[in-house]
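Re: weekly structure request thread

Next one in the queue (170 aa):
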Amino acid sequence: MCPKNKRVEFAAAAVLLGTAMAAAGDAAALKGQADRPPLVRRDLIPTAPKKISPPKRDPFTTQFFMEIAGGLGLTPAGEPRDVQGAPQGDPGAASAEPAGPPPPDIRYVGCILGRIGRTGLILFDGQALAVSSGEELPRGWKTGAITETSFEAIDPDGNIRRILLEGERK
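Done, posted below.
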């Protein structure tokens, strides 16, 4: 016979022997299981899914908060009131100057210490920027002092806004 055939015969015999031993082991294991409790308690597994009741209120509506505000003496429109509950100012009067653009969303993510100085890593309206002190930012903003724990942004009017270190969001 060829050595190849002997290898095939040996492999076939090993597979048959393994199958026979596994069958004998399963029969022996089944005999011993009658004495031991099962690993999984089937009586604790729920058979039918539990019915969940509908929510009592929609978490995305403000109706609940408006009811609370009514109890505090606020109007549903949310007009500002003083401590005694009297309206503050004239709510019908229009503002003399138009409202400016909303302030940008600035997040201080980190700081890099280098030979030149500190470089702040910020997100300015979602745009990642690496800036140093005194640099111009979009929309007329400027950078102020940069420390390891905070970052100062100066708006076009010269007001300083201090942003604390947030790090990365997950």
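Helices lie at 3-33, 63-71. Strands lie at 106-113, 118-124, 127-131, 142-146, 150-154, 160-164.
Next request, please.
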